[in-house]
Specification:
Length: about 350
């Protein structure tokens, strides 16, 4: 029988902690578990947990969402996307459709989906229509998309790919003058696909403690205990606190699918800018599926200049761990879940939405 969450908390409180330690939890799922279970408030006062950039909806480039909206409104297509993407606003005049949800209300054929299998089903059920899959997400959703493509897709299916790798954003933070944290809890679901060694650079290049965690309070507290112990000993290493799911090599089959179907490219993160080698693009043999090959007029690089966060929105600072959600100027005022201004208030993995739902306001 494993150690309970209460026992982990006792062990943490019994540790001699010589100085404050800031621990970034990369994953939006981690932040949801931490906030819902009250872990942040149960830790010693000199242990600070900082939400990180692990929300794919929050960092999806505004220009990609804008492209999806315009395609859905002006072309005779069915556009499918993961449900959270339908509510992410773009920066346009109030008279224009600001979200895919508003585009749907204006008559666009848009369908929310939960998995790539839904995409195949919709394409097969509508053989006379072009179906465009707006495929946004990190490695955990991009790997199933790659598998879907590798296995063969209906001729009427096209892809608007907006996939991102998680670790490059952390590398950018650690390479900055003020990263804002001195230990890392890495995402278990990403490590399940890519393997825990993807996070070894935190230790090897920056000499900081790191631990991979699952989503239970027990796993998160085990990882927290591990990085504190590493920090205090001055001997950082990469710890796997989710061994029942995360294997040393990750999912080799999923990695093979990703390398076959995708290529890694420099990519834009909303409000953050371009991060080197942080995005997925379709590799040459599969480029015929790229929606830009079929509807080229809707890919507009000029949108990158307009594609920052909305005026007054501090989502980019929240995503990169510079401020807490309730320190955003719009949080709880103009920006609430029923009327989100920034993407961090939209998704269940967005720190602002999580804090609004589960903390005192």
């Amino acid at each position: 029988m494993g150690i309970s969450a209460k026992q982990w908390l006792t062990l943490i409180h019994e540790m001699p902690i010589s100085q404050p330690i800031k621990i970034m939890n990369v994953c939006g799922g981690h932040e949801r578990s931490i906030t819902m279970s009250g872990i942040r408030g149960a830790l010693p006062k000199n242990i600070e947990l900082i939400p990180g950039p692990g929300c794919p909806v929050c960092i999806c480039p505004e220009e990609d969402i804008y492209q999806a909206i315009q395609l859905s409104l002006h072309e005779d297509i069915i556009l499918v996307a993961y449900g959270d993407m339908l509510r992410v606003p773009v920066n346009v005049k109030k008279s224009e459709a600001r979200t895919l949800e508003q585009a749907k209300a204006a008559g666009a054929r848009i369908k929310p989906i939960a998995s790539p299998m839904d995409v195949i089903q919709i394409a097969e059920q509508n053989p006379d229509d072009t179906v465009v899959f707006f495929a946004a997400g990190f490695e955990t959703t991009t790997a199933p998309t790659a598998a879907m493509i590798a296995q063969g897709v209906p001729d009427n299916l096209k892809i608007l790919l907006s996939g991102r790798l998680t670790w490059p954003a952390i590398h950018v933070l650690l390479s900055s003058d003020s990263p804002g944290f001195n230990a890392l809890v890495a995402p278990g679901h990403v490590a399940t696909i890519m393997g825990p060694q993807e996070w070894a650079f935190v230790v090897e290049d920056f000499n900081l403690p790191a631990a991979v965690a699952g989503f239970s309070p027990e796993s998160l507290l085990a990882a927290t205990y591990s990085v504190i112990r590493q920090f205090e000993s001055g001997k950082p290493f990469l710890d796997n606190c989710y061994p029942e799911v995360v294997k040393p090599t990750g999912n080799v089959g999923a990695q093979k699918m990703l390398s076959e179907v995708m290529t890694v490219v420099d990519a834009t993160w909303r409000g953050v800018g371009t991060i080197p080698k942080s995005g997925f693009a379709l590799s040459e043999p599969y480029r015929y599926l790229d929606v830009n090959e079929h509807f080229p007029g809707y890919h507009d690089d000029a949108r990158k200049r307009a594609g920052e966060m909305p005026p007054g929105c501090d989502c980019a600072k929240v995503v990169m761990g510079e401020i807490y959600p309730n320190e955003c100027r719009l949080y709880g005022k103009a920006c609430v879940p029923r009327h989100p201004i920034g993407p961090c208030m939209v998704s269940d993995e967005g720190a602002c939405r999580i804090w609004w739902a589960h903390t005192k306001r």
